[in-house]
Amino acid sequence: MKLSILIPTFNQDCTQLVHDLLEQLPQDAEILVADDGSTAIPIRDNNASIAELPQCRYWQAKMNLGRAKIRNLLAEMAQGEWILFIDSDAQVKSKDFIASYLSQTEGNQVICGGTGNYDSCPSKDKALRYKYEIHAEKKRTLKERRKHPYAQFTTFNFMIQRELFMQIRFCNEICDYGHEDSLFGLELKDRKIPVLHIDNKLIHTGLENTPSYLRKVKTSLFTLSRLEEKVQRRITISAIAFYIKKCHLKGLAIWLFDVCKKKMKQNLLGEKPSLLIFKLYKLGFFCKIMP
After folding, report:
1. Helix, strand or coil, per DSSP, at residue 43
2. Half-sphere exposure (CA, 13 Å, Cβ side) for 182?
3. Residues paired with 34 in a beta bridge
4. Would you give the end-to-end CA distance of the chain in angstroms?
5. With 0-12 CB in 10 A as exposed, 13-18 as middle and 19+ as buried, what is 275?
6. How far apart (Å, rounded) are the C-alpha atoms in residues 179 and 225?
C-alpha cells in the first residue's frame, strides 16, 4: 500500500474531513481515524460511523492517551509506505490535495503542506486565536517555510515515510498539549533529514474562544517547562526566559508579570487583543513556572 492518512481526534467531528478525503483517495491508500478517549458522546458516536466507509478504519481509545501516543499508535497500525498526518480540525482546500503530496515522494522523506486560515474571524470571542494565526501565517509563506524548514515544521499537515517515522516517533512522555511538533522538528534537524515544504495547505477550522485558548497556551508552557533544558534552550520563548534568568532578572520578570497580568488578561479577552501583550504574558508565565 502506498499511503495511509492518519487522523487523531478528540471531541472533534471529523466525518466531513474523511468524506472530502475519500473523494480523492487512490485505490492503494487508506484512512485511519483514532479517537483519543473523547468525552463528547454524540461526536464520538458520529465519528464511529467512519468504520463503515470504504478504505477506512476507526479505532477508539478507552482513555485519553495524549497527542504523541495516539499519533504513534496510528503509525503502528498504518499499512502504507507513506503516512500523512492530518489534524481532525482541518478542512480540505484542494481537490488535488492527496495527488499533490504523492507527486513529491520521489527523492524526499518528509513533506509539509502548510496551514491556512479563515478569511475573517469567525466570532468575536475567538479574536485572540484568529489574530495570532493570521500573524503566524505571514511567517508561514512557502518562501519562509523553505528558508527555515525545521523551525516551521508542524504536525497539522505533513507526510513522512513510515519507516523513517518509526525510527523517530513522537515523544511518548508528552501527554498534555504542546510541543510534540517542536521536538519532532528538532529531531529531524539533528538527524540532518531534509524537510520539503510545498504549497498544499489545509484550512485550520478549530479556533478556540479566548479563555479556552489561554488554558491551552498555559498547558503547552507547562509541557515546555518539563522538557530537558537543552531542548528548552532551542525553543524561542524558553530560550529568552533562560537569558533573563542568566542576567539575574527572573525575579523582576515574575514581579512585573504578577503586577500586570490582570490588565494583560483583560486586553487578551477583549475584541482587539495585542499580540505583543500576548507574547509578554506567555514569557512572564513561563518565567514563573520554569525550573
Report:
1. helix
2. 18
3. 8, 59
4. 47
5. middle
6. 11
- Using an 8 Å Cβ cutoff, are 89 and 10 in contact? no
Amino acid at residue number 79: Q
Q: Which run of H or E residues covers position 115?
A: strand 115-116
5 - beta bridge partners? Answer: 31, 84
Burial class for 167, CB neighbours closer than 10 Å (0-12, 13-18, 19+): exposed
Cell of 178: 504542546
* Dihedral angle sign, alpha carbons of residues 273, 274, 277, 281: positive
Locate 172 and state its grid cell.
511518548
* Residue 207 CA, distance from chain mean position: 12
Q: What three-state secondary structure class fits 103?
A: coil
AA identity, residue 10 = F
* Domains of the chain (ranges, CATH numbers): 3-204 (3.90.550.10), 228-289 (no CATH)
Per-residue pLDDT of the chain (291 residues; tens, 9 = 90+): 899 999 999 999 999 999 999 999 999 999 999 999 999 999 999 999 999 999 999 999 999 998 889 999 999 999 999 999 999 999 999 999 999 999 999 999 999 999 999 888 888 999 999 999 999 888 889 999 999 999 889 999 999 999 999 999 998 776 667 678 888 999 999 999 999 999 999 999 989 999 999 999 999 999 888 887 888 888 899 999 999 999 999 999 999 999 999 999 999 999 999 999 999 999 999 999 998
Residue that the C-alpha cell 520521489 belongs to: 106
Hey, CA dihedral for 187, 189, 194, 197, is it positive or negative?
Answer: positive
Residue 266: partners with Cβ closer than 8 Å, 6 or more residues away: none
- Which residues are paired to 115 by β-bridges? 202
Residue 11: all three cell numbers together:
471531541
